[in-house]
Amino acid sequence: MYNYSELYQAILKGNLNLAKTEVTKAIENGCAADEIINSCMVEAMGEIGAQFEAGKAFVPNLLLSARAMKGALEILQPQMQKENTKLLGTVVIGTVRGDLHDIGKNLVASMLEGSGFKVLNLGSDVPADKFIETAKENNAEIICLSALLTTTMGYMQEIVNAVKEAGIKAKVMIGGAPVTQQFADKIGADGYSDNANAAVTLAKKLVSAC
Q1: Which stretches of 84-146 are DSSP H helices?
Q2: What is the pLDDT of residues 75-85, one digit of tens each?
């Protein structure tokens, strides 16, 4: 019987090598992929997220935990395919056209992936048609838009309009330093979050409403 405490601590503390070692042990001990993810890995990411919101952990801690989670998920991927583990939904994420910042966006992507979403990360400087095309091809439930510049956040309006014009049902989430709930309401986005942990909570809420 595998004890999840070591894997939990590895992800919580952002120890990539230990996370890979422990998830391999869990698989060898016959643990199912969805059990490993839901009973341990998601819990660990939830804890680091809670610590961040409480001011007990910081962005570097989140990044390390997200990296450890991503490494463990890569090892779990073949097992998930074998077991046909059910995903929460598909998310297309990217930084909008004209903006090259992607650290925060990558953190959100890793947190979403670690929480059970399939994530298609388009990178930075992404035009509206790329978001639409990828969302259509993959039947995405959510499109996440990020911007760190006041000069690029206005482009989010164009993407929201394009999503509606394309007739796809994907919900649009937005975030980034200059972005606010007021701005999200103004452009007709379905949701706004100001940190990675809140983004996961919002994504789960939007998917359950689909």
Answers
A1: 103-114, 128-137
A2: 988 887 777 66
* Residue (of 173, 181, 52) closest to 119 by Cα position: 173
Last residue of a domain, one of 21, 50, 83: 83
Q: Are residues 188 and 97 in the same domain?
A: yes
- Which domain range does residue 32 map to? 5-83
Using alpha carbons only, how large is the chain's radius of gyration in Å?
A: 17
Token pair for 127: 């035009």
pLDDT at position 129 over 70: yes
- Tell me: do 74 and 11 sit in the same domain: yes
pLDDT of residue 85: 66
Distance between CA atoms of 151 and 77, rounded to whole angstroms?
Answer: 39
Helix axes 59-83, 16-28, angle to 10 degrees: 20
Same domain, 73 and 94: no
Burial class (CB in 10 A: 0-12, 13-18, 19+), 40: buried
Q: Are residues 169 and 103 in the same domain?
A: yes
Mean pLDDT of 103-124: 86
> Quick one: 185 and 96 in the same domain?
yes
Helix (H, G, I), strand (E, B) or coil at 118: strand
